[in-house]
């Protein structure tokens, strides 16, 4: 009985000590900006912006996303001042293109502070996002397989999946959403271990992320849109 009680106490202490700040890998999601602006009148993509952009950089466990990790470490703009211009191009906020700070702050508080045990600082979190961006040029991966933005040609999940895998050697996540009666490509997400080696995203995560994409191998109905329409 004493041993059992002792074990329970140990378990509680261990669990309390490790609830914050525990994760297994990173999920780095690139988005097609136009698709993010569907049904959002205050969201707009500058005409010159023709590539995928960073959407989120999320430390995860297999089961979930840690939340409210160390919100006591607030977003501090000074920490990223030396590469702010680059960040505003590669990780823009299409809801307020000139002022992306709030979007970055949300990502930092909700996600970045969950990786403090590995990344240490806010500066390091955002610098790593820029580094990972260099290995996750989703638009180029698709273009290599002749998958290009079009409002009239649609693609299959399988083709998009194969194109990304051919470029990186790894399985990614694909997220779709609706635009009127169309299904459109929204995000392509990549999985990195704590040493920043890309690895195959788990089938569980791929299924969860791809739940709004038609996945039948013969179903070519996913649009990679060139323009917004309702
Ligand atoms: C769009 O922006 C305006 C002005 O900032 C705001 O009043 C409105 O609530 C916003 N609409 C949506 C749907 O967010
Ligand atoms: C923000 O970061 C800068 C540079 O690291 C530091 O000097 C400053 O004290 C920080 N500000 C706050 C409010 O923590």
TrEMBL record:
Family: Belongs to the RNase T2 family.
One MF annotation (Gene Ontology) recorded for this entry: RNA binding
InterPro entries: RNase_T2-like, RNase_T2-like_sf
The protein, known as: Ribonuclease t2
GO biological process assignments: RNA catabolic process
Entry keywords, A to Z: Signal
SUPFAM superfamilies: Ribonuclease Rh-like (SSF55895)
PANTHER family linked to this entry: RIBONUCLEASE T2
Signal sequence segment: 1-19
Any single Gene Ontology cellular-component annotation: extracellular region
């Amino acid at each position: 009985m004493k041993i059992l009680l002792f074990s329970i106490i140990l378990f509680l202490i261990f669990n309390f000590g490790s609830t914050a700040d525990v994760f297994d890998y990173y999920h780095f999601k690139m988005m097609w900006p136009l698709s993010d602006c569907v049904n959002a009148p205050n969201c707009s993509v500058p005409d010159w912006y023709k590539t995928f952009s960073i959407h989120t950089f999320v430390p995860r466990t297999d089961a979930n996303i840690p939340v409210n990790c160390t919100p006591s470490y607030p977003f501090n703009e000074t920490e990223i001042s030396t590469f702010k211009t680059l960040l505003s191009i590669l990780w823009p906020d299409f809801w307020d293109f000139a002022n992306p700070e709030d979007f970055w702050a949300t990502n930092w508080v909700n996600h970045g502070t969950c990786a403090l045990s590995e990344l240490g600082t806010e500066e390091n979190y955002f610098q790593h996002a820029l580094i990972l961006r260099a290995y996750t040029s989703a638009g180029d991966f698709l273009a290599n397989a002749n998958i290009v933005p079009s409002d009239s040609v649609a693609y299959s999940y399988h083709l998009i999946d194969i194109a990304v895998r051919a470029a990186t050697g790894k399985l990614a996540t694909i997220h779709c959403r609706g635009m009127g009666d169309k299904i459109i490509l929204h995000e392509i997400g990549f999985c990195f271990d704590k040493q920043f080696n890309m690895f195959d995203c788990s089938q569980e995560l791929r299924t969860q992320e791809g739940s709004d994409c038609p996945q039948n191998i013969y179903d070519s109905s996913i649009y990679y849109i060139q323009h917004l329409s309702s």
